[in-house]
Design goal:
Blueprint: E1 15-18, H1 19-38, E2 48-53, E3 58-63, H2 66-72, H3 78-93, H4 98-117, H5 122-143, E4 145-146, H6 151-166, H7 175-188, E5 198-204, E6 212-215, E7 217-219, E8 230-239, H8 260-282, E9 288-291, H9 297-305, E10 309-311, H10 316-326, E11 330-331, E12 343-353, E13 356-364, E14 370-376, H11 379-401, E15 404-407, H12 411-425, H13 431-452, H14 457-469, E16 475-478, E17 483-486, H15 487-490, E18 493-495, H16 496-514, E19 518-521
Parallel strand pairs: 5-14, 8-9, 8-11, 9-10
Antiparallel strand pairs: 1-19, 2-3, 4-15, 6-14, 7-13, 8-12, 12-13, 15-18, 16-17
Length: about 525
């Protein structure tokens, strides 16, 4: 009997990778992405230059923020995209740990690759990993400290967390100064954790140390011509409405008239329509009118005649935040003055930052609102400073909600690693091998931190493991001196929420990739013949 030929059930153009080839492709793609960002981990991590080149754009970003790097690189490998996603979710959820989560997932997959090559089944590895995750989480919870009931110690914890977060960023040279800024801004929120109330404005010029925190809200706009530059006890009408009906906006419009006088009549009719709209706006009795869209010359003149400050083309995020902090609502129609809520503010005035004029809103309805003004030499420095400060603010707001803290410098990872190792010693079967691999992956975090600082990681991690086995579980890596030290004395503190999120996300992502035994790439969509012309 003739041998059966393999039957293809896929369309032409479909690519398929099976079993070992699919798994290896997943491992290689994910590990490559992890190795890319590994060198940015820790207080001595290096930066990456990300250059976007296109027909209309040529932007350069200098950063060591894991989420920014992962968002910017274009990856085609499906497993690598999973790591990009966990980095993005880590950034959205807790704001920091975006590099750690990718590096830990990468190290887990490296260990899994070794175990799979030794003919261990992926499901056995996953079973051992799940027990290891439970042991790690339990150890981390026991290790956590909580000073939420002591205002003085809790503020000290917040300062230490901010310093630790900023120590690996561009702001490390001014970490005490910016840590204080971040803590002051977050404590103003009074536990609301609404980061929209904290505005960050970047102004090139000066030095990073010239940055400062100011109460209220700053709008990067100027007042219209012949309008008041200062308004006290302001009633603010915030709108998103076109104020250019005196222009014919449809390109190619043709108007036929039998005389020049008719053109004047058309212009007059358009002006009357605009005047009616301005009168409707003024019927709300505002002293300040802020519009998301442009305000053209004629309506600006009408507002000036009535002594109303009119501000045009306020960016959408600025208008949204302004509505939040002043307690107003954004409106588009003005027929029912009674149903529109105006914002309030004690004082609006022009101020100078560097060579730019801005509008400062003092005494806003949302008392916790504040603005951080960042100064710096170049736009790249300012962008990276904003990313660094945003990470610190996110971590601090999470810590205000979940007040437990743990110690950094690889200390927490070593505590979890030792807990997993002890459990593996009492676990029979192949699962114990997988658990030991999980513990080795956790130890790679302090190893990478030491490598990036240029120290002997094997020696330092061995010393760290020895002191932890001697019940000195608060010891970690001191990367300023290249030794191990007590993290309590050094004040190297991290958020419990961040550490837990890193552990859970990395383990889940590595497990998902390890489960893969088939990759199917669908056939590309065929272009129609007329599309190829």
């Amino acid at each position: 009997m003739a041998s059966l030929q393999p039957v293809s059930i896929m369309k032409a153009g479909v690519e398929e990778e099976r079993s070992e080839m699919a798994r290896m492709s997943s491992f290689v793609g994910a590990i490559a992405v992890g190795d890319l960002v590994k060198s940015t981990l820790g207080p001595k991590g290096m930066d990456k230059i990300l250059q976007s080149v296109g027909p209309n754009t040529d932007t350069v970003t200098v950063t060591n923020d894991g989420a920014t790097i992962m968002k910017s690189i274009g990856v085609d490998n499906p497993a690598a995209k999973v790591l990009v996603d966990i980095s993005r979710v880590q950034d959205d959820e807790v704001g920091d740990g975006t590099t750690s989560v990718v590096v830990l997932a990468c190290e887990l997959l490296k260990e899994a690759e070794q175990l799979v090559s030794q003919k261990m089944h992926p499901q056995t590895i996953i079973s051992g990993w799940r027990k290891a995750v439970d042991a790690s989480r339990e150890a981390l919870q026991k290790f956590a400290r909580n000073h939420g009931d002591d205002a003085v110690k809790f503020r000290e914890d917040l300062m230490n967390i901010a310093r630790t977060t900023l120590s690996s960023k561009i702001l490390t040279g001014h970490k005490d100064y910016f840590s204080n800024l971040a803590v002051e801004a977050v404590l103003r929120l009074k536990g609301s954790a609404n980061l929209d109330a904290i505005q960050i404005i970047k102004k090139p010029g000066g030095f990073l140390h010239d940055s400062y925190l100011d109460e209220g809200f700053l709008l990067d706009k100027k007042v219209g011509v012949n309008q008041p530059k200062r308004v006290e006890n302001a009633r603010i009408l915030i709108a998103n409405t076109p104020m250019d009906t005196d222009k014919i906006k449809v390109f190619g419009s043709r108007v036929r008239v039998d005389g020049v006088a008719k053109v004047a009549e058309l212009e007059l009719a358009e002006k009357e329509k605009m005047k009616e709209k301005v009168d409707l706006i003024l019927s709300h009795n505002p002293t300040v009118f802020i519009n998301r869209q442009l305000i053209y010359n004629y309506p600006e003149q009408l507002f000036a005649d009535k002594g109303v400050m009119a501000i045009e083309h306020a960016d959408f995020e600025g208008v949204e935040r302004l509505a939040l902090v002043t307690g107003g609502e954004i409106c588009s129609t003005f027929d029912t003055p009674g149903s529109v809520k105006l914002g309030t503010c004690q004082l609006i005035e022009e101020i100078m930052i560097g060579e730019d004029k801005l509008l400062k809103f003092s005494g806003v309805a949302l008392g916790e609102a504040c603005t951080i003004i960042l100064r710096g030499a170049t736009q790249q420095i300012l962008d990276e400073a904003e990313r660094s400060l945003h990470d610190a603010l996110c971590v601090l707001t999470e810590t205000v909600k979940e007040t437990r803290v743990v110690y950094g410098g690889g200390c927490s990872e070593m505590v979890m690693s030792n807990a997993v190792t002890k459990l593996a010693e009492t676990t029979p079967g192949k699962e114990a091998v997988a658990m030991e691999a999980f513990a080795r992956a956790l130890r790679q975090i302090p190893t990478t931190i030491a490598d990036n600082a240029g120290y002997d990681s094997s020696d330092l991690v061995s010393q760290l493991r020895a002191v932890h086995n001697d019940n000195k579980d608060t010891y970690g890596l001191d990367m300023n001196n290249g030794t191990i030290a007590d993290m309590v004395e050094l004040g190297i503190t991290e958020s419990f929420q961040v550490k837990r999120q890193v552990l859970m996300s990395a383990a889940e992502a590595a497990e998902m990739i390890l489960r893969v035994d088939n990759i199917v790439k669908s056939a590309p969509r065929q272009r129609m013949p007329d599309q190829c012309m």
